Amino acid sequence: MKRIFSLFFVLAFVSVFSACKESDPPLPDNLVQFESAEQGADAATKEVTIKLKLTRATDVAVPVVVQVTPTGIAYGTQFTTTPAATGNLLNLTIPAASSEVSFKLTKADNLFLNGSETVGFTITSAASPVILGTTKQLTVKFTSIVSDGTALTLDGGTGGSSAINSVFADLSNNEAIAVKRAAWDLGFYSGTDFRVILNNTTGAAAIALTKNDLTQVTAADTVGLVLNVSNFDPAGLKLIDDVSGDLTKTVIPSISATDADNKVFIINRGTGGGVAARAWMKVRVLRNGTTGYTLQYAGIKETTFKTVSITKDATYNFQFVSFDTGATINVEPAKARWDIEWTGGMNKTSDGTNDIPYYFADQVFINTLGGVTAAELLTSAVTYDAYAESNIATTTFKNDRMVIGSNWRATTGTVGVKTDRFYVVKDATGNIYKLKFVSFTSQDGGERGKPKIEFKLVKKAAV
User: Fold this and answer.
1) β-sheet bridge partners, residue 266
2) Residue 303 exposed, middle or buried by CB count within 10 Å (0-12, 13-18, 19+)
3) Cβ(285)–Cβ(262) below 8 Å
4) Backbone dihedral angles phi then psi of residue 24, each to the nearest 5 degrees
5) Is 277 a residue whose pLDDT tops 90?
6) Given pLDDT bands bounded at 50, 70 and 90, which one contains residue 19?
7) What are the b/e assignments for 213-231, b being 16+ CB within 10 Å?
């Protein structure tokens, strides 16, 4: 009898132990909160997108209520929101299977403000199973701000390692703006030179013809042309713009003031990062006086072409054009309003003998054309937490858009964010931030295509 009891006890113990062992630990609370507690909207900013983020995607649609509190500015006449507020309340819904919802604040045209006006937003409620996080209040100031630092998720959208978006982050303004990589085809430089860039984020490639009349170019001119930069051929590097961003090394040379010198180019719009293949295009670019460009473009088999006029705007590094829309579109924010860009794009690697073109996901470029510089620091010299204003004098800032590049993460071996390094970014105004990457893939607790960053102000620029 004792033996039977003992056996029963052991089996019961094993059963209970196994049940405990196999049960999953409870998930942490799913919090909803703003990306930051403060955001700026200076005089040049017409519209602000404000995001509410969840800790993780929700299984069900979650209604969220946000209270709107204007100070010194009137709702309806001087600013509006999309969706519209009712009784100073915004009713939003985070869709099922999503981890965020956003709304827009839009200023009225010809609005003159003194900079002291603000709009406060407070998350007042969220339906179960979501609860309110710590950053449940956000203040939009109608002036430039200098952030003390925060954490941001760079939303690459769907696609994982082939995420569909590029994301531009403005550290001082606590802002990250996502733009579809395939939304544009050519960028037209707003500086003194007349330069045109291809879309490296889609792996676009181009080659010059000897002809300078678009109507004389037919499908016969493409016979034998190789515009493939995904075949690991060193020759492919000649078909893409310089991967370091050197504008003197673009495939399309400086646009000549003499029209006859500007040749027709055949462009493969690229399939990098999962972009769907699209028809090749024929293009020709001319100068439009001293302040702009004239783009001529058409499909290879088309006998007529379309024309787009592009005017330089010194507020931006480039003006962008889409062949799909036949018009200029917004891609990069104003050059003073972004510091780093997270994206995928063409780079180069070695095959053991030669440099070859290679599409890299998760690259981070700094805005060198906008005056941003940066440095990479190893934690063996100084840790992220310890880095302070006293360290700035011994930090070597570089005007190199690839300072961060793909150095910040590992996709082989120990996959994830490299924890042995961080970055120091000096924006165009002179504000200095330390920046570290927190996660970018499931192996380090993140999500591929939506890297998380953390940054802190080290030194504010002198006024």
Assistant:
1) 207, 282
2) exposed
3) yes
4) -75, 145
5) yes
6) very low
7) ebeebeeebbeeeebbbee
Q: The tokens of 412 are what?
A: 């082989």
The answer to whether residue 430 scores a pLDDT higher than 80 is: yes
pLDDT of 24: 59
Name, in order, each residue with C-beta under 8 angstroms of 303's C-beta and a sequence gap of 6 or more. 215
Cα–chain center distance at 30: 25
Backbone angles phi, psi at 383, to 5 degrees: -85, 165
Interstrand relation of 38-40 and 137-141 (parallel, antiparallel or unpaired) = parallel
Burial level of 275, CB count in 10 A (0-12/13-18/19+)? Answer: buried
Q: Is the peptide bond before 129 cis (omega within 30 degrees of 0)?
A: yes
pLDDT tens digits along 184-218? 999 999 999 999 999 999 999 999 999 999 999 99
Percentage of residues of the chain with pLDDT beyond 70: 95
pLDDT band at 380 (very low <50, low <70, confident <90, very high): very high
**Rounded to whole angstroms, how far apart are CA atoms 14 and 18?**
6
Residue 142: both structure tokens together: 């109608």
Take residue 275 and report the two structure tokens written for it: 């972009």
Q: Does 333 sit behind a cis peptide bond, omega within 30 degrees of 0 on the bond before it?
A: no
Q: Check the CA dihedral 395-399-402-405 and report its sign.
A: positive
Domains of the chain and any CATH numbers: 30-144 (2.60.40.2030), 185-330 (no CATH), 336-459 (no CATH)
Give 138-166 pLDDT, tens digit per residue.
999 999 999 999 999 999 999 999 999 99
Query: How does the average pLDDT of the chain come out, rounded?
Result: 93
Distances (CA, A) of 29 to 32, 34, 57, 280, 451: 10, 16, 12, 50, 21
Within 8 A by CB and 6+ apart from 323, the residues are 185, 269, 281, 297
